[in-house]
Amino acid sequence: MERPEPELIRQSWREVSRSPLEHGTVLFARLFDLEPDLLPLFQYNCRQFSSSEDCLSSPEFLDHIRKVMLVIDAAVTNVEDLSSLEEYLASLGRKHRAVGVKLSSFSTVGESLLYMLEKCLGPAFTPAMRAAWSQLYGAVVQAMSRGWDGD
Asked: Which interval of the chain is the signal sequence (predicted)?
């Protein structure tokens, strides 16, 4: 697999990483719009959220958003050596599988990530940048998918 263009990734992420919670919320709001069936997977203390707004404003979910943004941050930092994150990403995959996430949902997460980047960067989010992010995200999901191996 071709390596994504590191400079394009870093440059675009710098802008996003200034307010990760804000941008992460945009990502998940988009995700729940595209795939509302994911909402019931997020339960804290056995409490179902009545709406995506309810979920997006809960302290526990905000914590999940922060963690997701940190994973993306780690991928950006290690964009030139993603293999160093392979074990970590595979175990992250296993955790997601254990709570009932389907591997196919990660393509919707990818769409939501690109949507968030576009919203954040506007016209600065070029087709080359989009391609670089698609590549990086594809590599991350490939590593995470090892957590679903052996089905």
From this structure: none
